[in-house]
From TrEMBL:
Enzyme Commission no: 1.1.1.1
Protein name: Probable alcohol dehydrogenase AdhA
Naturally occurring in which organism (per UniProt): Spirilliplanes yamanashiensis
Similarity comment text for this entry: Belongs to the zinc-containing alcohol dehydrogenase family.
Keywords assigned by UniProt, alphabetized: Metal-binding, NAD, Oxidoreductase, Zinc
Length: 332
């Protein structure tokens, strides 16, 4: 099968990603073999390929927003059968026994493993997943539309919940790529007023088209104080900007797995009056099921830019340069 391997993480100019021919994987006990129909290109993939994240598996195949069909099952599989349409997401495995898992916070499990980082992912014709970490998918969406929901959608959903947006509240969204344009639609469907702040003129147009009340430059002040904000752009300089835009008691949730350094904060301006700064770490399977259930009940508009599997390196370069509107998706 075809697969892209990360051989030497580093700048994209050094071509760290290589298209290779590899033997087809075999599903182990409790696993599904999935024929990939679409795989989203996530900014986390970029962090894995360029070395922003430490190497967990040498030569790993990136990709953790996978939609496909079950091609075969390993011993003991009972929830799925060949031919079923399934989703494969970032969270691949947790221990189920630690204090975090027992209290429902499996996203904090110190033994957790991740698709496209600890194990080979979906930049390939085939991949595997444990059946307990595979998702059933809502009808009414194409494979390419579903792929971004499996990370961009899920992590955005968790970030929105971490931001503690009150009913009918005013939400600021900093950065407006794959995850943000889905999160905005969830917030709008729940009755929020959404203000988008991003450097991309194309993304600002998309935000207004989706129903945002305003769309301005990332460093501009929104037209009104915010009850909550989510930072999707991996830019630490925006943390004090977003905190300064919060009303009293507001919360900023930082959604990325990687963030550049945060400048010094001024306590009175950025944190006083009970403003809160929160990180977001991965997701639980419950987050995934909740987002996919929401997508089944509310038709989300998923902006997709398709690429053939052979152009995965170009898709990552376009993502890094902010040339992608919505979500880039590989379609084998």
């Amino acid at each position: 099968m075809r697969a892209w391997q990360t051989r030497a993480p580093g700048p994209l100019s050094r071509r760290p990603l290589h298209l290779t021919e590899r033997p087809q994987p075999a599903p182990g006990p409790g696993e599904l073999l999935v024929a990939v129909a679409a795989c989203g290109v996530c900014r986390t993939d970029l962090h894995v390929v360029t070395g922003d994240l430490p190497v967990h598996r040498p030569g790993v195949v990136p990709g953790h927003e996978v939609v496909g069909e079950v091609a075969a099952t390993g011993a003991g599989v009972s929830r799925f059968r060949p031919g079923d349409r399934v989703g494969v997401a970032w969270l691949r495995e947790t221990c189920g026994a630690c204090a975090y898992c027992r209290r429902g916070a499996e996203n904090l499990c110190p033994h957790s493993r991740y698709t496209g980082w600890d194990a080979d992912g979906g930049y390939a014709d085939l991949t595997t997943v444990g059946e307990e970490y595979a998702y059933r998918l809502p009808p009414g969406y194409s494979d390419a539309e579903l792929a971004p929901l499996l990370c961009a959608g899920i992590i955005g959903y968790r970030a929105l919940r971490r931001a503690d947006l009150p009913p009918g509240g005013r939400l600021g969204i900093y950065g407006f790529g794959a995850s943000a344009h889905l999160t905005a639609q969830v917030a709008l469907a729940e009755g929020a007023t959404v203000h988008v702040l991003t450097r991309s003129a194309g993304a600002r147009r998309l935000a207004l088209d989706l129903g945002a009340s305003s769309a301005g430059d990332a460093y501009a002040a929104p037209p009104e104080p915010l009850d909550a904000a989510v930072l999707f752009a991996p830019v630490g300089d925006l943390v004090p900007v977003a905190l300064a835009a919060l009303d009293r008691g507001g919360t900023l949730a930082v959604a990325g797995i990687h963030l550049s350094d945060i400048p010094a904060l001024d306590y009175q301006r950025h944190l006083f009056q009970e403003r809160t700064l929160r990180s977001v770490t991965s997701n639980t399977r419950q987050d995934g099921r909740a987002l996919l259930r929401f997508a089944g009940e509310h038709r989300l508009r998923v902006a997709v830019t398709p690429y053939p599997l052979d152009a995965a390196d170009r898709a990552l370069a376009d993502l890094e340069a902010d040339r992608v509107t919505g979500a880039a998706v590989l379609v084998p």
